[in-house]
Amino acid sequence: MEKSINKKSEPAQSKQRLGEILVQSGLINEKQLQAVLKRQTQVGGQLGSILIEMGFITIDDLIEILSKKLGVPGVNLYKINIPSEVLGLLPREKIISLKVLPVAADGTTVTLAMLNPQDFIAISEIEFMLGKKIRALVIPAFMMEAALKCLPTRHDKPLIGKSVAKMVKVHNGNVGEIPDLQSLLKSLMNSGASDILFTAGVAPSIRIDNILKRLPLPSLTSTDCERYARELISYNDWDDFMKTNEFDFAVSFPGIGRFRVNVYKQRGSISIAMRSLVDDNPSFDTLNLPGWIKTFLLKPQGLILVCGPAGHGKTTTLSAMIDFINTNKKCNIVTLEDPIEILHKHKMSNINQREIGSDTESFAVGLRHVFRQAPDVIVIGEMRDRETFEIALQAAGTGHLVLSSVHADYSTSIFDRVINMFEQHRQDLIRTMLADCLLLVLSQRLIPRKNETGRILAFEKLINTYKIKNLIKEKNTNHIRTQMQAGSESFESIDLAIAKLFKSGMIKFDDGLVFVEDEQYYRELTGQIKPPSKAGG
């Protein structure tokens, strides 16, 4: 339907605000006007440029409305070139101070583009200076500001319309500059980044090798972020998000990829974190995982835990383990994931992937029913609460192989984390259950490669041997690190693992130093002894 402008008398329209005229003319509705006014309070700027930026009207719409409001013709500077002899009619300083621009001239009249064509004082002053009659035209404020920035310093140079248009894009906010969501996601995939983040007040940002980089784009506003969020969240789920203020899910874009998404509120606006999900299961060799782990994955029962900071590949490691079992063992695998990040196909095993929120209410609820699903292998995306830990321990001790990730800094810190979740009178029982069913703990870090082509995995291993089991039962888990820091068949610290990567030429010393537990021990292992500091005099 073609947009039309209501024909009102000029005096009546000239007293109305621009937003009111746009609503009455049918170019925008009241809800769109409120969104524009809200954005204006957040980022400032002229109402007209924000309307164009948000796609509610075109530049020609705005110029036509201003023309109707003020009762004079309008001009689009993008579509004309102003000759140098016309620009030279007024001193450059006068053009800038009065914010006027001569665009045409003949023997008796100078046509003048103005922000306020009803500024009769300025018109009279210029008529007196030039000795000619002034014909006033109206232009939008953002267009005038861009034209003044492009104004040639030499008298023999014209003002080119395309230069004004380009200056608007660079200097005048975000007109036409914020890409659509799918274009940004394509950029994410092409760059090799793992995440893309949208937050009001800064440009869209990507994470490459765990380093945040802002894209060369204008800052996002809360309206931009809400627009992206509405594109990601289904209509039926939007009300739930508005009630809870956070929402986790996975989404696919054909021809682009799958993404894990978290949408959340912060300071009244919406932020979005999206992580790219790989389609192919990475191999042990690709991840730098040792082959001896495979022996534990073929065991009929027990507990295998992967821990480490967020963003250091715990989910990817678990996926590689699942794929190995799926490829080499005939069994029934049931996973509980929030959300499902990597899709597995049936191989030798049957694999059932259940997503928290859509397939089951929570990890705890899913685990309560898992025993009736005849699982041989149970994979828990993340163990977060007491009930989940307790059911996992029961499953690992009653004929099931259980794999899970835990947020813990080191392999030995898992023990106190799990045990202290429970009431004091139950802690000895839980300690015994954990000692009896635990097979293996890996604590991992992803460290930048020396050649700056990605990151390489360093992992701390803890194999639950007879000696380790006794230390757990005897409440001496703190002795595991002190007794075995130098490394043994059952335990290798993260410091030792990182030192091996440095000595093999895989990483830089300083990149490894960021992730070690004991700096002095790491220096001794690598031979990079820090010289003693000189005493001040």
Summarize the structure in short.
The protein is an alpha/beta fold and 537 residues long.
Task: Describe the 3D structure.
The chain is of the alpha/beta class and 537 residues long. It folds into 4 domains: 1-71, no CATH class; 77-176, GMP Synthetase, Chain A, domain 3, CATH 3.30.300.160; 181-277, Beta-Lactamase (2-Layer Sandwich), CATH 3.30.450; 284-459, Rossmann fold, CATH 3.40.50.300. The protein is 41% helix and 20% strand. The chain contains 25 helices and 17 strands. An 8-stranded mixed β-sheet has the order 12-11-13-14-10-15-16-17, sandwiched between helices. Strands 6-5-4-9-8-7 form a 6-stranded antiparallel β-sheet. The chain has a 3-stranded mixed β-sheet with strand order 1-2-3. Strand 2, helix 8 and strand 3 form a beta-alpha-beta unit. It is elongated. The N and C termini lie far apart (84 Å). The model is unreliable at 1-13 and 170-176 (pLDDT under 50).
Summary keywords:
8-stranded mixed sheet, 537 residues, single chain, 6-stranded antiparallel sheet, Beta-Lactamase, alpha/beta, elongated, disordered N terminus, GMP Synthetase, Chain A, domain 3, 25 helices
